Amino acid sequence: MTGPATRPVTAVLGPTNTGKTHLAIERMCGHSSGMIGFPLRLLAREVYDRVVKIKGPAQVALITGEEKILPRDARWFLCTAESMPLDRDLAFVGIDEAQLGADPERGHVFTDRLLRARGREETMILGSEALRPMIRALIPDAEIVNRPRFSTLSYAGARKISRLPRRSVIVAFSAEEVYAVAEMLRRLRGGAAVVMGALSPRTRNAQVAMFQSGEVDYLVATDAIGMGLNMDVAHVAFASLRKFDGHRQRRLTVAEMAQIAGRAGRHQRDGTFGALSETGSGAFTPEEILAIEEHRFPRLEHLHWREGEPSVASIDDLIADLEQRPLSPVLRAAPEAVDLAVLKRLAEEDGVRDRTRGAAMVKRLWAACGLPDFRKLGVDPHTRFIARVHGYLSTGTGHVPHDWFAAEIARLDNVNGDVETIAGRIAGARSWAYIANRADWMAEPQLWAARTSALEERLSDALHDRLTQRFVDRRTTVLMRQLGGDAGALAVTVAEDGAVSVEDQSIGRLEGFHFVVAADARASDKRLLLAAAETRLGAERARRAAALATAPDGALALGTGERPEICWAGHPVAYLRPGPALTRPRIELVRALDCLDKADRDRIKARLEGWVAAQVARHAAAIAAVEAMARDPAATAALRVIAAALGTGAGLAARLPLGEAIEALVGMDRQRLRKAGIVIGALDLFDPRLLKPVAMRWRVALLAAQSGKALATLPPPGATVLARGAPGASAVMGFRAIGAQAVRIDLVERLARAAHDARAGKAPFTPDSTLATSIGIAPATVDRLMGQLGFRAAPPEQGVPRWVWRGRPPRVKAVTAPRDNAFAVLAQITGRHG
Question: Is residue 757 within 8 Å of residue 767, measured between CB atoms?
Fold first, then answer.
């Protein structure tokens, strides 16, 4: 679309609920042809359904990255901004939410459409009033029309979830937070619908339908609802005012707050907004409230830009064009997007350059790099995926093979699993849908597009079912309405032992912070009574939170379950998760504590972090010490190698693989190891204190936390010798396998010292068998151990076995490897290659 100077451009600016999108749809339908670009696939699909009712399915097209409905006689096109076909000659073109040109991640797309997308007869740019100076600077001939909001938007104060009015939307900024709020609403109010940008249109529509029909009175959503999704909302409550924008955690801008809050109220009906917190970072400031109510926001000072028609003469020309600086002072070069990052990585591969010669192949490579990272894997894994796709597109027939495509979608075709699992499969299906909807990437694109569409529909239906099962309790919803929502009027008592009663009827127990419904409660009353109880458990949970935040060391303990957990009053309150080091695990509170205020959770987390640090310092000091040695730049290479091995083994390491490093230790190194408690034994390096029962439990918990796996089986208390392969008889537990038995390594060291004390040079000698017998080591095990220690059997004397010292077993030789190999790096650290 060229020649914008002679084509009229109208910028329709204003806050939410001004009818901008409705106006654009009317204008488009009044022309012989037209197209509108939207910020979300969900919104494009919603408007597509509206236009189909006006024009009929044979003349309306939907084009998004992973969905394409393109009738042969299509004249009206509803698209995502990225998917707008700019080469079509259409009478009308509209760009919705054009202020997104200021977005660091996708802004360059909206800026490009604002500058280049033009209708033959009319172009309409829709956006907030903040866009006005950008329109003036970039399209000086554009006519700017301001649209006032149809209804009033006012601040209604902060309210807890339990006191939110019906027809409320609660906005959160992560899937975890959305799920936590929805779960709380299920307990308190019978349930909620859920809307997130990652949902498929089918799932989103099914969830919204529950809210619109009144089946549920609440909807929990991400900020995706801020982009024009129209629902019957009376109040918008912010669960938080901070979000992760892909680079950092930051507070929302006032414009972003207003965009979301503006979903409240519809047409002439007024709406309200508020927060769940009265104080802290989750509360609105007076200045923010005034700006939102009066629709006064800072004007945009720049938009992000990237060349929209880069040269495809060569890969280098393409990259150079994509990285060139804008000429206009109000435009800024867009930060490096995922597609460009992938392109630059692929450009470094000789095979890619060899296959990408000529403009057509460069254009094909750039199209492959545009495949979105729906699964949010990160640049490197996403690059590997695109490299494989491009490999097929640039060799052979130039098509993605059917067998690979079919196998991948068959792997995703599974409707079992929880919400997160099915949502992950839908994200994977979107990648294959995107590939199938590229007409030149598949030999039979229509066949595979239909299959991926059917797969997404099945998964979407399953996801809707899981969301409904997890977050909607229809019985509670109905009963709450019968009570007029006043479940709090019922008397709730919590006994000292945690028993909870409503109206003198026992309904369950409060175990820690988790409420468990009594098994014998009547089914007809259970949900209603539970909802009533939840409204009154806040005070008891707050009291328990205060007690936990100040709990003495003796009240906390490691749990005995399969996962590394911290228990208080016999109940798990937190898990140990991977941290920056083995001895510094991250503390993750259990979900049962989500009911507490953030301040209470923060205090509890701080207390548990202090307790864990103290316990590690008390029971696993040697592990922390060797971790510090491994990171110490002043330490010798040999000491760092040994310390790293000990750190990996949580204070234990076999001697044989470390033979060269041990020989390279200087006196100061050995002194540091001894000071840390490390014994350099005949067969193992270890701290004897780590073999004590409590220390062993902490070692196992720290290793499980770092690996994300279940706790290893502990040996029986006081065990010194176990059958080989018995539970707990492993190296990680401090046992050395010798023949049919496993012997604790500190006892192996005692036997080794006793043998060396008994020998005289290299003369045959008979060791004292009393120690081995008292420990419970079999004669055959003793024979094997003597061999491992460097002794060989001598002729017996009067039937008594004798041994001769032959010297320490040979050390493990370093692996010879190329200089750029990881083994070469290790060899350099130990000084093997100079």
Answer: no
Residues 761 and 781: their CA atoms lie apart, in Å, by 24
Q: Using CA atoms of 391, 396, 399, 401 in order, give the dihedral in degrees to the nearest 10.
A: -80
Query: How high does pLDDT run on average in the chain?
Result: 87
Mean pLDDT on 376-402? 93
Express each pLDDT in 273-294 by its tens digit: 999 988 888 899 999 999 999 8
Tokens for 95?
A: 């760009």
Q: Where are the beta strands (DSSP E) in 147-302?
A: 153-158, 168-171, 193-195, 218-221, 235-238, 242-244, 249-251, 271-275
Which alpha helices (H) appear in 348-418, and where do they start and end?
Answer: 350-355, 359-369, 379-393, 402-412
Query: Given this model, what pLDDT does residue 478 score?
Result: 47
Mean local confidence (pLDDT), 334-338? 93
Output 756 or 231, whichever has higher pLDDT: 756
Sheet order of strands, 34-38 included: 67-69, 60-64, 76-80, 34-38, 92-95, 122-127, 9-13, 143-146
CA distance 449 to 443: 11
Q: Are 527 and 502 in contact (CB under 8 A)?
A: no
Residue ranges of the alpha helices (H) in 684-798? 693-707, 745-758, 770-775, 779-788
The CA distance from 234 to 170, in Å, is 11
Question: For residue 352, what are its two tokens?
Answer: 């890619």
Residue with tokens 């939207």: 38
E strands in 291-446: 303-305, 331-333
Residue 28 has pLDDT above 60, yes or no: yes
Which residues make Cβ contacts (< 8 Å) with residue 526, sequence separation at least 6? 507, 517
- Which of 458-467, 672-681, 719-728, 767-776 bottoms out in mean pLDDT, i.e. has the lowest? 767-776
Distance CA 513, CA 771 (A): 52
Q: Which domains does the chain have, with CATH numbers?
A: 4-146 (3.40.50.300), 153-293 (3.40.50.300), 336-471 (no CATH), 484-536 (no CATH), 546-619 (no CATH), 621-805 (no CATH)
Residues 133 and 531: their CA atoms lie apart, in Å, by 52
Q: Report the alpha-carbon distance of residue 393 to residue 399 in Å, rounded.
A: 5
The whole-angstrom separation of Cα 804 and Cα 807 is: 9
How far is the CA of 71 from the CAs of 27, 35, 414, 433, 442, in angstroms?
21, 14, 31, 18, 19
| First-to-last C-alpha distance (Å) of the chain | 65
Q: Which pLDDT value is given to residue 264?
A: 87
CA dist 361 → 312, 355, 366, 393, 435 (Å): 9, 8, 9, 9, 17
Give buried/exposed letters for 688-723 (b at 16+ CB in 10 A, else e). bebbeeebbbbbbbbbbbbeeeebbebbeeebbbbe
Radius of gyration, CA atoms only, the chain? 34
Q: What are phi and psi of 641, to 5 degrees?
A: -60, -45
In one-letter notation, the amino acid at residue 575 is Y
Give pLDDT tens digits for 482-507: 444 444 455 667 787 787 776 555 66
Please say whether the beta carbons of 580 and 609 come within 8 A.
Answer: no
What are the residues whose beta carbons fall under 8 Å from the beta carbon of 148, sequence distance 6 or more? Answer: 14, 18
**Cα distances (Å, whole numbers) of residue 203 to 39, 57, 80, 431, 464:** 18, 22, 19, 17, 5
Handedness of CA 395, 397, 400, 406 (dihedral sign): negative
Q: Answer whether 217's CB lies under 8 Å from 188's CB.
A: no
Using CB atoms within 10 Å of the CB of residue 283, give its burial: 0 to 12 exposed, 13 to 18 middle, 19+ buried: middle
- How far apart (Å, rounded) are the C-alpha atoms in residues 204 and 185? 19
The number of C-alpha atoms within 13 Å of 370 and in the hemisphere containing its C-beta is 16
What is the DSSP code (8-state) at residue 228?
A: T
Q: How far apart are CA 270 and CA 151, in angstroms?
A: 5
Helix, strand, or coil (residue 684): strand
